Amino acid sequence: MPIKIPDSLPARATLEGENIFVMTEYRALHQDIRPLKVLILNLMPTKIVTETQILRKLSNTPLQVQVELLRTSSYRSQHIDEDHLESFYTTFDQVRGRKYDGMIITGAPVENLDFTQVEYWDELCEIMEWTRSHVHSTLHICWGAQAGLYFHYGVEKRSLPEKLFGVFDHRVLKPNSPLFRGFDDVFQAPHSRYTEVWESDIRSTPGLELLAVSGDAGVFAVKSEDSRQFFITGHPEYDPDTLAREYFRDREKGLQIHVPYNYFPGDDPCRPPIVRWRSAGQLLYTNWLNYYVYQTTPYDLNKV
């Protein structure tokens, strides 16, 4: 089934080129069903890349999903055409009176800053507080997961001695969890971050469930006991070349960066990477959307 997006969103051509069923707003208006309403707060500077990655994952389900894109108004990205933001993005003031079946809060390249040093932190806190009463289930990704854990539960993020960078093995701790239905006992996922949350902090915090971990990358998946908040510390939505682009970008800047772990064959950056996380990443987004949004959200969104 399709994902419903604006007719002229750049991601449309990319997804259609991959034979992904994308439904335009015009066609969707002629179907007598209620699509799931999902709001994406995109905090990444590479807006179009991140949009496309997440939309690709949301599209591969038997559900019709109506997506809205949200940006911060307290900080304007310098890396995206203003026309794109004006055409496809909304602000919190425009949506604060609405309710949503699901929401995704992305990561952001600000993890070395204290939360309160982030320019849009106050606005993000207001949005995260709003999700408690206006969103049925919220999925936080990477820095967004660390921000969510800190805001909702007071879990601190911890600095790493060097960037955690590569593709790592993970273990499912709760195989009966619907979020990991269809997963292998061990699965792989990309990470790219300078900070982490500690497993001991998660286990000692009332109201949280630890679902999956990695021996090398630490905590991967956490959720609230009521399944209203999910926290994923990696990037299961990443494209095949995302880590490569980050690696070459950092190297060109003269930054200390090692070859991403378990990514290039033979650790040779001249060879194309091998994708080992695509199926697990798709399952994670599909399972969240199906079991924690579609299956449990009220038909009348006013009852969220």
UniProtKB/TrEMBL annotation:
Its EC number is 2.3.1.31. GO terms for cellular component: cytoplasm. It comes from the Bacteria. SUPFAM superfamilies: Class I glutamine amidotransferase-like. The record marks 192 as: Important for substrate specificity. Substrate binds at residues 163, 192, 249. Gene3D superfamilies: 3.40.50.880. Pathway: Amino-acid biosynthesis; L-methionine biosynthesis via de novo pathway; O-acetyl-L-homoserine from L-homoserine: step 1/1. Transfers an acetyl group from acetyl-CoA to L-homoserine, forming acetyl-L-homoserine. This is Homoserine O-acetyltransferase. It comes from Intestinimonas butyriciproducens.
